[in-house]
Design a protein that fits this description.
The complex is a heterodimer of chains A (249) and B (213).
Chain A: H1 3-27, E1 67-72, H2 78-85, E2 97-100, E3 106-109, E4 112-117, H3 124-144, H4 149-167, E5 177-182, E6 185-187, E7 195-202, E8 208-216, H5 223-233, E9 241-248
Parallel strand pairs in A: 8-9
Antiparallel strand pairs in A: 1-4, 2-3, 4-9, 5-6, 5-7, 7-8
Helix pairs in contact in A: 1-4, 3-4
Chain B: H1 3-14, E1 18-20, E2 24-27, E3 33-41, E4 47-56, E5 70-71, E6 77-79, H2 84-100, H3 103-108, H4 113-119, H5 129-141, H6 145-155, H7 162-181, H8 183-200, H9 204-211
Antiparallel strand pairs in B: 1-2, 2-3, 3-4, 4-5, 4-6
The chains are: A alpha+beta (249), B alpha+beta (213).
Chain lengths: 249, 213
């Protein structure tokens, strides 16, 4: 593909994300606010939320043990949402619910759940950052659409990283995204022994005060990986590693 | 040459004060500090961050540290595909970024320990072990042994993990011991570490060119 076309496309993406940033700032976006599912003519738009799915945090049987900070309720079709909400932790949950557009065509309705694990509530800066990152992830979920597997995970990570960088958030900036470390030293990605963080937040003296790890699908953060994130980044043992999890169900 | 080296090779032809080494486009002279640019992979295929970096060479290193560097172009990524036209475009983009951000002039200002301390003054309170080890060695190089000793001793309680103790404790102890033995031993240790780093990081050519009158 011609480089000019590629650049134009990239510029377009940049503009879209910049517009999204402005929108987030102006509208004080709440991840709890329901939206019309992606793939529909009004996909991504806000709804009254009256048809929200109300999925129980612990009804998915995932065993995450995490707190649900936000359910992005992909509203629009009550019957379909009801289908998604019937999970009791025992019934396998399909990737997509289905609905009819009135013409007999069955289309998938994605339901995204964003779960924060281990998010400390005693540090206002971390709480605010977690909320902001969760909001960004909510929008990214819509942009990426439904999916699973490593390719999808990479796509979500890329969109998320781009959006967080563009927001230039306090304590994160642009360099706090996709940063690799070895023994507390910043290192080139792929350097032997290096570990890459998704997002790090720094305090006033430049010390790491929180590490965020984005997971999609059924991926989870093992205790070993959590420890490695701290030890290789040089963060103190009490620095929280916060999981932002995006799952379609 | 890999594609990143090919990009830097093209850039170096336009910048007389640089030399293309194994991983970095080095800004000469290379004396106590490695100064230059590095292309870092991203999670997106064929896209790279461009880093501007400064790294002391007188403390033990097994890789190029980016701790005293930053991503250029507001972390915008550069597309580099494995074909000549893409390499050329990427080189033009790298050259443009380096020029626009006055990165060469900035790096050219850093040559002495005092220059380095000025560059990193906002990070002096950053308690991460590798940074503090660099600072301690810099103080030692400047002859401020009390400060160097104080910084070194303060690092030890921050080595919370086995990997940090394994990596840094031997260097901390060696430098403390050299300081106790005197100026000559201290300078000899720092010179030894520099020489090993030059070989480990493949900087021989940059050092040779820097020594040329």
């Amino acid at each position: 593909m011609d480089i000019v076309v590629l650049r134009a496309q990239l510029a377009g993406i940049g503009v879209e994300i910049a517009a999204l940033r402005s929108w987030l700032l102006l509208n004080k976006y709440s991840p709890d606010q329901p939206r019309v599912p992606a793939g529909q003519p009004t996909g991504g738009q806000w709804t009254s939320g009256e048809d929200g799915d109300g999925v129980d945090a612990n009804a998915d049987g995932s065993g995450d043990g995490g707190d649900i900070s936000s359910d992005v309720a992909w509203s629009g079709d009550t019957a379909a949402e009801g289908t998604a909400a019937t999970g009791d932790g025992m019934t396998p949950t399909p990737w997509f619910s289905s609905t009819s557009d009135g013409a007999g065509e069955v289309r998938p309705i994605p339901v995204a759940k964003i779960i924060e694990d281990t998010s400390p509530k005693d540090n206002p800066a971390i709480v605010a950052t977690t909320r902001t990152l969760t909001s960004i992830l909510s929008v990214i979920a819509d942009d990426a659409g439904p999916g699973f597997g490593s390719t999808y995970g990479t796509r979500v990570h890329k969109l998320f990283a781009d959006a967080v960088r563009l927001n230039d958030l306090p304590g994160i900036g642009r360099d706090g995204v996709e940063q690799s470390f070895i023994g507390g030293d910043k290192a080139d990605y792929g350097e032997e022994g290096s570990i890459r963080t998704d997002v790090i937040v720094r305090g006033a003296a430049g010390e790491i005060i929180a590490i965020y790890d984005l997971k999609t699908g059924d991926a989870f953060l093992s205790p070993r990986r959590e420890q490695a994130l701290r030890s290789e980044s040089g963060a103190r043992p009490d620095v929280p590693v916060i999981v932002l999890k995006l799952r379609w169900r | 040459m890999n594609k990143k080296q090919r990009v830097f090779e093209l850039v170096s032809r336009s910048l007389a004060e640089t030399v293309n080494t194994n991983k970095t486009l080095v800004v000469l002279p290379t004396n106590l500090y490695l100064k230059g640019f590095l292309l870092e992979s991203t999670i997106e295929k064929n896209r790279y961050f461009l880093w501007k970096l400064v790294m002391p060479l007188y403390t033990p290193a097994s890789f190029i540290s980016l701790s005293f560097g930053n991503r250029l172009a507001r972390s915008k990524t550069i597309l580099i595909e494995d074909r000549a036209s893409s390499i050329k475009l990427a080189a033009e983009e790298v050259l443009q970024i380096i020029t626009q951000e006055h990165a060469l002039a900035f790096l050219g200002q850093i040559d002495t320990p005092a220059d380095f301390l000025s560059h990193v003054r906002s990070m002096l309170q950053n308690g991460v072990a590798p940074n503090q080890l660099h600072f301690a060695a810099t103080f030692a190089l400047l002859g401020d042994y009390d400060k160097a000793r104080e910084v070194l001793k303060a690092i030890v309680p921050t080595l919370y993990y086995e990997n940090l103790r394994t990596r840094y404790l031997p260097s901390i102890e060696a430098l403390l011991q050299a300081i106790e033995q005197g100026r000559d031993q201290t300078l000899a240790l720092l010179a030894d570490w520099r020489q090993v780093n030059i070989e480990t990081l493949g900087l021989q050519e940059a050092v040779r060119l820097s020594a040329t009158p």
